[in-house]
Write a structure and sequence with these properties.
With 113 residues, this protein is mainly beta. Helices cover 0% and strands 47% of the residues. The protein is built from no helices and 10 strands. It has strands spanning 3-6, 9-11, 17-23, 33-38, 45-50, 57-59, 67-72, 77-82, 91-97, 107-111. The protein has a 6-stranded mixed beta sheet, with no helix packed on it.
């Protein structure tokens, strides 16, 4: 299984970015997917997840109301739409197959004026 994140970059506070994570293996529609992030000098933290079936979503309190996780099973891709970005959202963002050690290489998000 290979996970490839993309979509990071430099954005001003209040701006938006959409991250993508492409899954290369089979059975994507049966996988619960996570987004995590790791800021410089900090532990990796969970950001959001999305279930299979009804697509229930969960969010960390720090991003609730600003970030949206969604998936396109036909494209085997999970997305993270990030709005109203704050400086404290600066981190490397990773996607993950829940319950596994399958991680992508990460994509850097920098929020700075």
């Amino acid at each position: 299984v290979r996970l490839v994140e993309s979509g990071g970059g430099l954005v001003q506070p209040g701006g938006s970015l959409r991250l993508s994570c492409a899954h290369s293996g089979l059975g994507f529609s049966s996988l619960v997917m996570n987004w995590y992030r790791q800021a410089p000098g900090k532990e990796r933290e969970w950001v959001a997840d999305i279930s299979i079936g009804d697509g229930r979503r969960g969010y960390a309190d720090s991003v609730k109301g600003r970030f949206t996780i969604y998936r396109d099973n036909a494209k085997s891709t999970v997305y993270l739409q990030m709005n109203s970005l704050k400086v404290e959202d600066t981190a490397v963002y990773y996607c993950n197959v829940a319950g596994t050690k399958s991680w992508g290489q990460g994509t850097q998000v920098i929020v700075d004026s």
